[in-house]
Amino acid sequence: DSEKHWKLFKAADIPTKKTLHSSFTDAIRGTQVVQAGNKDACRMLDIGCGDGRISIELEQEEAEHGVQLQIVGVDCNQEAVEVAKQRASASPVKGGSMASFIVGQVATLDITAEQAPFDVVLCQLVVSVVGDLTSRRGLLRACHKHLKPGGVLLVSSSGASEHVNDSYKEQYDKDREVTGEYRTYYSRDADGNVLYETHHFENEELHSLVSEAGFCDIVTHEEEEASSRRPDQKAIFLYTIARKPWASKETLGQSEALVVSSVYKAGEQRASAALPPWGG
User: Fold this and answer.
1) Interacting residues of 278 by C-beta distance below 8 A, sequence separation 6+
2) pLDDT tens digits for 132-186?
3) Rounded CA gap, 100 and 74, in Å?
4) What is the DSSP secondary-structure string of 107-135?
């Protein structure tokens, strides 16, 4: 049970990315609700929100760009959720933060009808640490379930890193017999105690899982960056953007159909519906 390890972390010690990839913020600004000039807020679900730093900073940053976000953050760590609520209370966003945070199991997430569905689902590194293949599939299905048709999935993950860091190959080889899967290994503390299980994805592997969960227009950006837990070491990270398919045109109203045909990339409108808003 991967979550039992994450529940024990101190909020400040949860390893994660401190910022969003630029392609993610571009995709948020390209969602239907933003591009249509809708007065309603863009509704985002942050799965594995940790201490809420990303959610609150994103809400503030997007407000400065005229984008109103209503974020629901979910994490299995009670202490982290309490810290996230405190961040929301102290937010400098004009009129106060609309973000809310709840404790929940990310792999079997079931948001209430009053809160769902969402325009965007953000999943920062969770798919790499949620557990085995069954848990990864469950997580991505939950993401799909809680998105509106046409909604955007933003999922970052650890990528296969043996070609940039020999120590990862050593860990992959060392733990393969125990985990039963190559590139799945145990992240350990300085004393060798297991903290949690981690899986590093190949690009095609992650693409296949996201597609299997029902998403389309899948685009992945691969980056070589500092490791989340070991900032002095290199690692590969994958930033994947995908879309939940729209309902058929027959079920869309005229105004919605116009939005579908107008796509977005890096802040600019493009007229080709053949390309996803985040580029291809």
Assistant:
1) 23, 26, 27, 30, 217, 219, 241, 265
2) 999 999 999 999 999 999 999 999 999 999 999 999 999 999 999 999 999 999 9
3) 9
4) GG----TTT--EEEEEEESHHHHS-SHHH
Cβ neighbours for 76, distance < 8 A, ≥ 6 positions apart: 3, 6, 7, 103, 104, 105, 106
Give every strand in the sheet of 118-124, ordered side by side.
Answer: 100-103, 69-75, 42-47, 118-124, 147-159, 234-243, 216-226
- Residue by residue, DSSP assigns 122-185 as EEESHHHHS-SHHHHHHHHHHHHHTEEEEEEEEEEEEE--TTT-HHHHHHHHHHHHHHSSTTEE
CA–CA gap between residue 228 and residue 50 (Å, rounded): 14
CA 143 – CA 153 distance, rounded (Å)? 7
pTM of the model: 0.84
Dump pLDDT digits (tens) for 224-259. Answer: 998 877 788 899 999 999 999 986 544 444 444 334
Please give the Cα distance from 40 to 60 (Å, whole number).
17
